Amino acid sequence: MNIEGLDYNTQRERLILPEYGREVQDMVDYCLKLKDRDERQKCANTIVEIMERMFPKDSYNDENYKQKLWDHLAIMSKFQLDIDYPYDVNQATKIATKPEPMEYPMKKIPVRHYGSMIFELFDKLKTEKPGEEREELVRITANQMKRNLVQWSHGTSDDQKVADDLARYTDGKVQLDLDHFSFDKINDHEMTGGKKKKK
In this predicted structure, what is the pLDDT of residue 140? Predict the structure, then answer.
């Protein structure tokens, strides 16, 4: 819906560097239209001064702050501003280039509440030789399984389920004796997944 006199951001061209706002982008667009080179240079210098005043703290913390401002000016002008830059802005193209999206590692696991790392431990336990190291790995795995179950089931967990699942996903290689195995105590912080309980 277009209403005369109203100008919504959603109807405007998307900002190249939103942190500087539309006013600064309008100044850069105006600077690009100036035909006289000296006027363009003065205008560019003024824009950079305004940009610097917008984030004064950064100028104290960043040694290359001035360079960054001129790089940003070049980016906002889409590298079309014909002026004498006090710095080499060729590297600004790297800032303007968006990184390729990272692929999310999707692993197919039978149940999500244990997570892929626990299933990696299951695989390790299938081939691990009996001994102290294996017993410690069984202890760590079983306790982490219980923590995961507690978080996913909002504070409740069945020791027998942990034992059954451990045997099932290690192809019967690990049989947890609940008469002799004791789980670590799970504190309130772990039970709520680090979230504070509402009063």
Answer: 94
